[in-house]
Amino acid sequence: MIFSVLDFLCFFLFMILPYSTIAQTSRNISLNSSLTARNDDNSSWPSPSGEFAFGFRQIGKDGFLLAIWFNKIPDRTIVWSANRNDLVQEGSKVELTSDGRLMLSDAEDQQVWSANNSARTEVAYAAMLDTGNFVLANTNSTNLWESFDQPTDTILPTQTLNQNTILFARHTATNYTNGRFLFTLQSDGNLSLYTTRFPQDSANFAYWSAKITDIGFQVIFDKSGHIYLASSNGSILDYISSNTVSIQNFYQRATLGYDGVLRHYVYPKNASSIAEHRPMDWSTRASIPPNICLSMMEVMGRGACGINSLCRLGDEGPICECPRGYTVIDPNDVRKGCKQNFGPQSCDQASPEHLFDFENMHHTNFPLGDYERFMGLTENSCRQNCLDDCFCAVAIFHPTGDCFKKRLPFSNGVSDPSLDAKALIKFGKDNSTFSSGGCAIPKKKDNSTLILVGSVLLSSAGVLHVILPLITYLVVPRVYSRKAKVIQPRPVMSGMNLKDFTYEEIKKATNEFKEELGRGASATVFKGVLASDTGRCVAVKRLDAKVRENDLEFKAEVSAIGKTNHRNLVQLLGFCTEGEHRILVYEFMSNGSLASFLFGESMPNWYQRRQIALGIARGLLYLHEECSSQIVHCDIKPQNILLDDYFTARISDFGLAKLLRLDQTRSMTAIRGTRGYVAPEWFRSLPITVKVDVYSYGILLLEIIFCRKHFEAVADNEDEMILADWAYDCYMQKKLHQLFENDEEINDINEMEKYVMIAIWCIQEDPSLRPTMKKVTLMLEGTVEVSAPPPLS
């Protein structure tokens, strides 16, 4: 038979096709090949397409990880590692030896890890495949060992998990050691997520399990993006992720995060895939469990966020926070939990209410761990019961009248809108004996010399009669004089607990005004540390020269501010009026201003924003109606609302505040405040009352609701979008959903509509139509119904 040229070419292509396919999916690494850990990031073996790489990755300054990672995306996400619990240093080496062993040795040539391959003498080569699988193979291209069989915290498309295979979450975002959670298909066929008995790796508590009616045989991650549990006959028992995603267009992985959530991630490979997934980054297709905060209820264990902490679901996953009166044990590992920053309650105290108070947290619970339960109580009686009990740290009150008491440490803390419970968390009113905010506590003066001298003097009875009169004459007056200097502070203003600082004290506290926190039109704020107050962090506000001129006005405003005391106001601690200096010393707010919180990269959740809005309203209510002298703030805006350690809203900057006496009809003539927040009466020669703050609050409330600035440039700065006008138009047209960029916010649209109605009431042009801050607070709390507001003129 005579073959044509075309027949020959077809035959040739047919014969080489299998080998061509193998060559495209693997790049053989020969025996005696090695890589050395170096700081140049070139120590790797890439897959044929370059999408994956195997080699060394430097982890901060801690050492090197022998790992596999996505090699074509900017963050080079790690999907597997050999030595996650034992990092190696520069100069360490991984080698495929002549006898077929894949071995990791440290810089001193000590073996750290090796591939567990019983047939190593048959190994002919290694290969990093385009699937993300690193293999050791024989001459027949049969895999004798593969990384897919030894997963760490991630599985990839085409990978399967067999029975008794475990994924361990890493410890933290930057610590790859085994963490607090594991995912396993057990020998009995059950697929579950467990907490571990950290730092041990053994399983503790199952917080999620697949719903199956048969024995699970394998977890399969197929090429279509489905992740499911299959039985031995291949039938699907339960889906972990049923999303269909093309592996041609998207990188994919399923990773057990350090927060205990198993997530299916996708990442667009090219610009044509971005339309569905903005921005070009890993996006989540499925999460198991959907809300770990609600799923975690351990009988023995620390819960999702550690002891004495609270878990709430944010946009990117669970967020761990400390209640008021508690701080994180380790800022680098928030899941260690929180510790008290106040002293314990004495069981002999007759009036504990002078020393302790309660943080009232709605929709919050600490399941399990109760030591006492009462039924048929009111909230006040439940609170009082916990206050009178020196062992009680938290009381949980239900609308049914059930009251549960918990002692330290408490666990499983969760805040979620679905919970019909209120947590009453006890905290100490005076935390001054504890450090906060990372400020150092000054060391006590060493009295050993004084004790030694005293011992020597008193050791000789014979000379005592001679020395004692001399000591009495020379030493005792000086001791009392020194005591007087230590104990007696500088004078405080009458009726207030404010310290009158010297200028030298201020300079020392601020390290010569070194760390600037912010600058305004009339003052500059610096961070300081009060060595005389156990290293307490403070904000030092130095007024500019033009503000210093009216000394009587300065003292009047300091006097008014110093008499205020409310949890939603920034507390004034002291002042300095030495010479030309006019300085105010405030408590330090660690989480900055509401402006940066609202208008940052990520939108705070609705629950947080709602609590902040209510806190500001309560603070203004106090200024207007509850403090000894009625105060109008005059400049309510996001920059003047600060957030403390617990993101509680605290009104600041009383620099423009003015006192209103009962016989006053107009407190000032010059317009005060900030554009966009200023009430119309400033421009109309109308009396200035507390209603100017109500107007400003209405504008601020709209910004809190929508996380948008009151003025926003549009159409290349040719025009401005005015939030109040837009919100009012959308409210009237029943189109408020158009103001939300985040679909999750739509779930709260009914409550947000109520808040918009409150804001519209507040920004009425006629001051008499605006509600008082007391009514605003009651409307926000749900105590008073919100009626339809009149039209904006």
Give a structural overview.
- This protein has 793 residues and is an alpha+beta fold.
- The protein folds into five domains: 35-149, Agglutinin, subunit A; 151-197 and 207-290, Bulb-type lectin domain (Agglutinin, subunit A); 295-428, Hepatocyte Growth Factor; 435-443 and 490-588, Phosphorylase Kinase, domain 1 (2-Layer Sandwich), CATH 3.30.200; 592-793, Transferase(Phosphotransferase), domain 1, CATH 1.10.510.10.
- Helices cover 21% and strands 27% of the residues.
- It has a six-stranded mixed sheet with strand order 36-40-41-39-38-37, sandwiched between helices.
- A hairpin with a 5-residue loop joins β16 (178-185) and β17 (191-196).
- The protein is elongated.
- Residues 1-25, 274-278, 431-492 and 659-669 have low confidence and may be disordered.
Number of strands: 47
The CATH architecture name of the largest domain reads Orthogonal Bundle
* Major β-sheet annotation: 6 strands, mixed
Radius of gyration, in angstroms, nearest whole number:
34 Å
Shape: elongated
Per CATH, what is the topology of the largest domain?
Transferase(Phosphotransferase), domain 1
Question: How many domains make up the coordinates?
Answer: 5
Cα end-to-end separation: 97 Å
* Regions with little confidence, pLDDT below 50 for 5+ residues: 1-25, 274-278, 431-492, 659-669
Helical percent range?
10-25%
The CATH superfamily label of the largest domain reads Transferase(Phosphotransferase) domain 1
